[in-house]
Amino acid sequence: MTGIDDQNPLRTQLENDLNNSEWLQKFKAINQLLHSLKAEIVEIQSCELKWDTHSNGLVIHCPSVDIAQQLQSQQHQIITIANYANCITLVHPGSSDIILKA
C-alpha cells in the first residue's frame, strides 16, 4: 500500500531536486569538513568554527593565544583537511588574525 506522499509526483520531484542540488552537496561537504577538523585535531575542539559563505572560507575562533599557536603549528594538517576552503583564518583575543591559507 502506498501513501499519499508516495503518489505525489511533484513532491517526489522536489525531493529529488533538493537531494541532488549543488547547495545541499556543498552544505554536506562543509559539514563533513568541520566534523573532520574537530575529530582529527584535538586543540580545535575548544574553538568555534564558522564558515564564511562570502569568501568560501573557514574562520577558527580560538579561546586563547596558546590554542592559536598550537593550531598554527598544525597548519599543514588543517589545510589538508579543509582543502575545500579558499581561505583559513585563526582569530584569537588580543592579537592579530593568523592567515593559514589565503
User: Which structural class fits the helix and strand makeup?
Assistant: alpha+beta
Number of domains: 1
Number of helices: 5
Order of helices and strands: HHHEEHHEE
Rounded Rg? 19 Å
Low-confidence stretches: none
Total DSSP E strands:
4
Shape from CA axes? elongated
The proportion of strand residues reads 15-25%
Largest sheet: 4 strands, mixed
Could you tell me the mean pLDDT? 86
Give the CA-CA distance, first to last residue: 56 Å
Strand order of the largest sheet: 1-2-3-4
**Fraction of helical residues:** 40-55%
Give me the oligomer status.
single chain
Give a verbal description of the structure.
The protein has 102 residues and is of the alpha+beta class. It has one domain. Helix content is 48%, strand content 18%. The chain is built from 5 helices and 4 strands, in the order H-H-H-E-E-H-H-E-E. The protein has helices at residues 4-7, 9-19, 22-40, 65-72, 75-81, and strands at residues 48-52, 57-61, 88-91, 98-101. It has a 4-stranded mixed β-sheet with strand order 1-2-3-4, with helices on one face. The protein is elongated and about 60 Å long. 16% of the residues are buried.
